[in-house]
Amino acid sequence: MSVSIKSAREIELMRAAGKILAKVHDNLKKELREGMSTLDIDRLGEEIIRSYGCIPSFKNYNGYPASVCVSVNDEVVHGIPTKKRHLKEGDIVSLDIGVIYKGYHSDAARTHGIGEVSKEAELLMERTRQSFFEGIKYAKEGNHLHQISNAISAYAESFGYGVVRDLVGHGIGTNLHEDPQIPNFAQKSRGVRLKAGMTLAIEPMINAGRFDVEWQEDDWTVVTQDHSLSAHYENTILVTSGEPEILSLSAAM
Which domains does the chain have, with CATH numbers? Predict the structure, then answer.
């Protein structure tokens, strides 16, 4: 396994990509409302991405047909936007978005509630987000990768949640998916030693029920097997000699 260490110039480009992606998420969150279709979200997301001079990372990636992965309720990730699916009061919707800026990718996901959501949904979203922050406490030079994985799962599982095992985080840079793979569930091995200059996309996918998932007939949409709610929270981060730097996060998110 070869994990790339980014140069000072590459880090600056990834910072710029991350800042733009944070703005895309902020702008799209303001537009979410009951009644809009998931295709509306995708079209608006692509428009915002291109308005910043970026290219959507996901569009046509391995055949994926959209710019924004829009996953609702029991959909974990990779939901394909459609004009037939409309958001309803009480839904939770996960938006996974990537941008390419001057050849460098940034990747981030957020889960939002539509109108008034259940207490269960509210806590799931809040704790999924916090599991990311529990994990990156260990994203420091000299630590090992799987300390991040173990911290995410220990936090999420303390609430009885299922931590998805079939999908993981990843390194990121000039390619959307680079080494290393980053599980969100506990590992026995230590994983690679973290070094300053590594850029990682850490993305807990947490289910209110069991961790088991299955793929729909479109070969993209992943749903919880027990149809429990699922939430997704992701940022692109930079490992430094001190605290990790979150590249794709604004103050609002």
Answer: 8-246 (3.90.230.10)
